[in-house]
Amino acid sequence: MAINVFVPKxxxxxxxxxxxxxxxxxWTGLGFKTVEFEDKWKQYTDLSNxxxxxxxxxxxxxxxxxxxxxxxWKDGDEIITTPLTFVSxxxxxxxxxxxxxxxxxxxxxCLDPKSVESKITSKTKAVMFVxxxxxxGRYLDIxxxxxxxxxxxxxxxxxxSGTKINGKQVGAExxxxxxxxxxxKNLPTSDSGMICFxxxxxxxEARVVAWMGINKDTYQRFNNAKGSYKWKYxxxxxxxxxxxxxxxxxxxxxxxxxxxxxxxxxxxxxALYDSLLKDVKGVEIIKVAPGCVSSRHLYQICVxxxxxxxxxxxxxxxxxxVHYTDNTEYPMYAHGKGTCPNSHKKSDELITLPIHLNLTxxxxxxxxxxxxxxxxxxxx
Length: 380
Ligand SMILES: *Cc1c(COP(=O)(O)O)cnc(C)c1O
Prior knowledge:
Layout: E1 3-4, H1 12-25, H2 33-45, E2 51-53, H3 56-71, E3 78-81, H4 87-95, E4 99-102, H5 113-118, E5 124-130, H6 139-149, E6 152-156, E7 164-165, E8 168-169, E9 176-180, E10 193-197, H7 200-209, H8 218-224, H9 246-257, H10 259-277, E11 284-285, E12 292-293, E13 300-302, H11 306-315, E14 318-319, H12 341-347, E15 350-352, H13 361-378
Helix pairs in contact: 1-9, 2-9, 3-4, 3-7, 10-13, 11-13
The structure holds pyridoxal-5'-phosphate.
The site of pyridoxal-5'-phosphate (PLP) has 14 residues, from helix 3 and helix 4.
């Protein structure tokens, strides 16, 4: 059987029961289960605000939109960001007519604080940090740097559900953290995300923007009228339809119960890979930064002859991934080409080995055997 990089595992019976409650009640949209999921996410993470959305991507846009308006950023102002990420991260900056300025990555594949500092100009307003694979890298140094320089910090925490620093879920240190519950992430739904502002005022403003700029959401109107639907509302600004719905929230509520045990299994898998690869020449293992517990969304290695080795995997029905192609290789981000040598180099060497909750220890051993063959075949 083929071994894929990601295969989501759902607790189907429980999810269907949770969804049935929505269907029987006749409420599948914003409110009801979305409110319940937000409360449960706040309990789990200890973050002070949580707002359930249709995806992480819309959350990244919403974060920048709200910060831009609040702090009077101008078109052309700059956000320092990483080239080694999913394009959502950087598209979100462009949606608001701001400029992504690329800083280089460190050995954890996360933004290098020294490089970030060297890219700060009078137009810099914020830093966008991505915890690749759940790895916080030098995030705490970036938190300090942002404080010192008066910059906002946006955390793309798409991979970081369950990542802990000093025993606490990561996210509270940033002005805003955005999680992804897309189908292959650690907490899978269909598509959805959670935006967590440090400032409750911004959370409130974002809720209006995420619901078309309408000042009362449908659930408030329904509930405040004791079962009779109130039709009156006001619209003061252009908003977006970015909120999450109760069907996706139902999946999230169930899967949140299994997030911790899933992450424990992920750490077992990565420890097994570590031990199997420890003496293999020609493999660089991307390590997790010390002092944290990673969600281990990814297990990444670097090899020479990456493309040929990927083909060798395919020939053996193993389908690893690559996270990511350096975004400056895409024409729309070409302005950053040549400015981040470490990222440009890693982009040609990275492989994400299969990691998911249906993977067996024997699968991991097979993956490593095929990797070794591939390395042997192409090393000279
Ligand atoms: C998956 C992902 C996103 C986008 O998340 P969606 O919920 O699919 O919109 C953004 N950034 C990173 C790093 C991701 O891996």
